[in-house]
Amino acid sequence: MKIKKRWKVFFLINGKRRSLTIEPHWTLLEVLRDQLGLTGTKKGCDRAECGSCTVLLEREPVYSCQVLAVQARGQRITTIEGLTRNGKLHPVQQSFIDHDGVQCGFCTPGFVLTASAFLDRTRRPTPDQVKQALSGNICRCNAYVKIIESVLSASKRGKRIRD
Amino acid sequence: MTRSLAVVGKSLTRLGALEKVTGRSQYTGDLTLPGMLHAKILRSPHPHARIVSIDTCAAQALPGVAAVVTPRDVAPDTRLQPDRA
Amino acid sequence: MHPFRYAEPESVAEACRFLKRQGTSAMPIAGGTDLLSEIKDGVAKPESVLNLKRLPSLAHIREQDGALRIGGMTTLSQLQVYPVLRRNFRIIEEALSTLATPQIRAVGTVAGNLCQRPRCLYYRHPLFLCAKKGGTTCFALDGDSRYHAILQNDLCPMVHPSDLAPAFIALEAQVLLAGPEEKRLLPLEEFFLLPGQNLSRETVLKPGEILVEVRVPKPKAGTRGTYLKFRERGAGDFALVSAACSGRVLRGTVAELRLVLGGVAPIPFRARQAEEMLMGQRPKKEFFAAAAQAVLAAATPLSGNRYKIEAARTLMVRAMQAVLK
């Protein structure tokens, strides 16, 4: 067993293999933003409460501010930059535009990713299920009604996206 | 009024919505500019105390530190004054 | 976050040996949702962190003769979707549905949930050297005690924050602990320590020991269970007070009852007095209220948490009504 101060790792980020050397105390959020320039993932509270930093780790939404990057080595990560395929928006992204689920937009990447993972698992959710699924994301503009509308509408588009 | 209105009565897409749902929108914390420095504020660890002196030597000696700024570095007449209104 | 070294052990034995050798300078990490808060807040300062989450031998869920064996590194979201939960282990399912947020459940583990540290604001604050952290004063006893214990609260009125612990105890779960030399199996109820037994730690874990498995026996036919929780926010919040209840009525009288409260004491609080009063009785609301009253007669609320008495009474009665019928 090696106990190291620096780890040479790779991640599968948005379908691409990215190799780099990291320090164990760096969070996944810090690696994504500061080392890889993926600033679509937002730093809000930095303590696993607001959900702005949500990314998908092996298709599940996680708070990247409260995950050690080194613990996620070798795993598949989807950030907001990876949700758009060949210039085509994910149905959840389109729905957030159509139903005005966006205000200042700072929480939006986190909400969109959480919702996309949820809709991958739940085909015809009830409004209550949507609220439960989004309960780990906070919108300071208080756009919740439109956000929930956006997700419900996206669920009716019925398009599932898989890696 | 025969001229049709371009905005009133129409449902419009929010400006910037596309950038926001794709994460391309740039917020202050996302910007990197040439020569940009980062600042960190050190707050008092005591809820009620008098500042007797400030020794910045250790902070100044850290690698990469450009400046340590204390009230001594600010001209007295430009300092924030207590609200007397 | 302050820097530390990091390692990934290849076996439980290697992890235990390393942790024992390093003492308090090394800390095990699972999902990290709790430990990383403590490190960010400057409350925990490990020199090295040992990742247990990649140990495949700890991430299982198995059924053995109807009993459930849950590896310590099973994530809360993996447990939540385990099919048999809804049928036989309703309390666990209900506790999980109120626990944290989807993002935390996706990385947080069962062992991590049982071993998480208290949420007391003074304990979590880097500038309060409280008695639990080796200081001389408990700031909560005379300070902001809104979220603190109403029972067994004389030394340190922390409350145990786990939602799973009361649920598991109501189901008579056992925990398997692995150490450098041996393994031991004990009831989860005996896993937790009161501040009077050990002020700085909350569990019986010895240096080098880790929680490797939770074993939940299959409830007898006709057993019902529920987990009820009062919290400030409707989602993603710890319990102000919670009640886990498991029981069975046979031929019109109470044949089995276990009632465990969260949020009221430094450990998950087993309301034995209520259980004893109701055994063999007919399940009637007046009896439930009297039993809850008896449990709370021992309460010693602080200046800010008297409301917890009423909340606990209400939850106990509601839980018994839901289960004993």
User: Total number of β-strand segments of chain A?
Assistant: 6
Q: Which CATH top level class of the largest domain in chain A fits?
A: Alpha Beta
Q: Quick one: overall form of chain B? A: elongated
Question: Could you tell me which chain pair has the largest interface and how many residues each side has?
Answer: A-C, 34 and 35 residues
Tell me what portion of residues of chain B adopts beta-strand conformation.
under 5%
| Low-confidence spans of chain B | none
Keywords (chain C): FAD, Flavoprotein
Protein name (chain C): Xanthine dehydrogenase family protein subunit M
Organism (chain C): Tectimicrobiota bacterium
Domain FAD-binding PCMH-type (chain C): 1-221
Any overview of this molecule?
The complex is a heterotrimer of chains A (163), B (85) and C (325). By secondary structure, chain A is α+β, with helices and mostly antiparallel strands. Chain A folds into two domains: 7-82, Ubiquitin-like (UB roll) (Roll), CATH 3.10.20; 91-157, [2Fe-2S]-binding domain (DNA polymerase, domain 1, Orthogonal Bundle). Chain A is 31% helix and 17% strand. The longest helix of chain A has 14 residues, at 108-121. Chain B has 85 residues and is largely without helices or strands. Chain B has a domain at 35-76. Chain B contains two helices and no strands. Chain B has helices at 17-21, 57-61. Chain B is elongated, with a radius of gyration of 24 Å. Chain C has a domain at 224-323: 2-Layer Sandwich (Enolase-like, domain 1), CATH 3.30.390. Helix content of chain C is 30%, strand content 20%. Chain C has helices at residues 12-22, 35-40, 76-80, 84-88, 90-97, 102-107, 110-115, 121-124, 139-142, 164-170, 272-278, 285-296, 307-323, and strands spanning 5-7, 26-29, 48-51, 61-64, 67-71, 174-178, 183-187, 210-216, 224-230, 241-250, 253-262, 269-270. In chain C, the strands form three sheets. A five-stranded antiparallel beta sheet of chain C has the order 4-5-8-6-7. In chain C, strands 9-10-11-12 form a four-stranded antiparallel beta sheet, sandwiched between helices. In chain C, strand 4 (61-64) and strand 5 form a beta hairpin. In chain C, helix 5 (90-97) packs antiparallel against helix 10 (164-170) and helix 12 packs antiparallel against helix 13. Chain C is globular. Chain A binds chain C through residues 1-5, 7, 23-27, 46-49, 51, 54, 57, 60-63, 66-68, 70-71, 114, 118, 131-133, 135-136, and chain C through 1-10, 14, 18, 29, 32-33, 36-37, 39-40, 48-49, 51, 53, 77, 97, 100-104, 106-107, 234-236.
